[in-house]
Design a protein that fits this description.
Layout: H1 2-49, H2 53-69, H3 77-85, H4 92-105, H5 113-124, H6 133-142, H7 153-158
Helix pairs in contact: 1-2, 2-4, 4-6, 5-6
Length: 160
């Protein structure tokens, strides 16, 4: 008789504990993912739609900052793909910050590596103290891809 009294209490306690753990797991799993991806998608939209180069560059820089502060596991594949599509924007300053954002995501963004590798020869030959190649090479390394050596001044002159 004594065993029967303990079993219902034990069963009730086990069920409550299981339900509590499930709710905690659900709350911690879905909320950060959704919020992170919404913030990133909003910023991606600004990179695409801002009217001035300065504003697009600032939005891309903000995107890189967001990805730096975010656990890459929270970023869904669609958002990674949307970030990578920003590399089609022809401005070097935007491409630089987008490369940085992809680098922060790391190996999960490695599908963007071929596009980054294709941008390097052009970026290497741009004049200026700081071009996107300074962002692309570290991003490739963070993705686990070995970047090629930088093109020399002569290499750039021979392609003109």
């Amino acid at each position: 008789m004594r065993k029967m009294r303990k079993n219902p209490n034990l069963l009730f306690t086990s069920l409550c504990l299981s339900l509590s753990l499930s709710l905690v797991k659900l709350a911690t799993a879905s909320t950060p993912h959704r919020e992170v991806n919404l913030k990133l998608e909003e910023t991606i939209g600004k990179v695409r739609s801002e009217s001035s180069l300065t504003a697009r560059t600032q939005a891309a820089e903000h995107l890189a900052e967001l990805t730096r502060k975010t656990n890459a596991a929270y970023i869904d594949n669609k958002t990674i793909s949307d970030i990578a599509s920003l590399l089609d924007i022809p401005e070097d300053s935007v491409q630089a910050w987008v490369a940085s954002a992809l680098g922060h995501i790391g190996r999960r963004a490695s599908s963007a590596a071929p596009r980054l590798l294709a941008l390097l020869p052009v970026s290497d030959c741009l004049q200026g103290d700081l071009t996107s190649s300074a962002f692309i090479r570290p991003a490739l390394k963070q993705m686990g891809v070995k970047p090629p050596p930088a093109r020399s001044y002569n290499d750039c002159q021979n392609t003109k």
